[in-house]
Amino acid sequence: xxxxxGPWASGRFDVEGHRGAKGLVVENTLASFAAAYDAGVTGVExxxxxxxxxxxxxxxxxxxxxxxxxxxxxxxxxxxxxxxTLAQLRTVDVGSLTLEGFPEQRPAPGARISTLDEVLAHGLxxxxxxxxxxELKVNPLDAGExxxxxxxxxxxxSSVHExxxxxxxxxxxxxxxxxxxxxxxxxxxxxxxxxxxAVTWVPGSPWTGSVVVGESHVDVCEGAAAVGAQVISPEHVxxxxxxxxxxxxxxxxxxxxxxxxxxxxxxxxEAGVDGLxxxxxxxxxxxxxxxxx
Length: 293
What we know:
Blueprint: E1 14-18, H1 30-39, E2 43-50, E3 56-58, E4 70-71, H2 86-89, E5 92-93, H3 116-126, E6 131-136, H4 143-147, H5 149-163, E7 169-173, H6 176-185, E8 190-195, H7 220-226, E9 231-234, H8 241-249, E10 253-254, H9 262-271, E11 275-278, H10 281-292
Parallel strand pairs: 1-2, 1-11, 2-6, 6-7, 7-8, 8-9, 9-10
Antiparallel strand pairs: 2-3, 4-5
C-alpha cells in the first residue's frame, strides 16, 4: 500500500467521516467535523460549491432543501446555492433540523454554511493531521455548473494552497473532467475518481471526462487511471476483492463510500480496500479496533 499516495502511505487504514460525521451531527457543519475528529478519523469528506459571488462554500445540495435549511431572514429555502451570495447564505440556519433517517443525528442549532477556508482553518486547529477529501460538486449535465468547473477548482486549489494542505488532500469528483483539469493545474495534488453504480461507468456516460466507456476503456479502474486519478472511490456495493485487485493493478487506492454497516466494513477490510467513508466513523473505527490492538 505504501506505493500509493494518500493517508495510507504510512500503512494505516483510512477511516473518513462523511460530510463531517453525518450520522452523529448535522452534515457539513463545523460541529459535525468536530464530531468526526473526536471519533478519531484519519480523514474527512466534504462537498464544495460556488456561490453567486464566487466563494467556495461547504454544502452538498444544489438547492437549499426544506429538510435541512431554515430561513432566518428572507425565505431562501428552495433557492439554488449558485444563485445566492455568501451574505445571503449566511442568513440560513443549516444546523437546527435533523434528518429522519438518522435517529442519532444531533442538531447544531444556528449553524451557518461555512466557506472552505473556514472549515480548513477549524480542522487545522483541531486535528492538523487529518486528510481532506474535497468533493467538487459539478454536474456535467448542468450547463451552469459545468461552465464554472474551472472557477470552482481554482477556488479549491487556492484554499488548500493557502492552508498548506496540497499534500494532505484529494480533489474528489464524480465529474472526471474536474480531475483532468486538476492534473493540469495542480499535478502535485492527489486526485480521486468517484463512481456511482449504474450512473458513472455506463455507455454514453457524461461523467468520465475524455474517457469513453466501452471504447477508449472497458474497465472502470483503467478509465479512472487514464484521467489521472490515483484513487478510485466507488459506491461500496461495487467493491469486492476482484475490484480491489483490478484497482491496485492500475495503481489506484480504493476508498469506497458510504459504508455504515459494521459487517460491511469488515467485508471491505477483508477485500483489501485502503480506506472507507462513513456517516458513522465511530462504528467503522470500532470494527477496526481489534485488528489495530
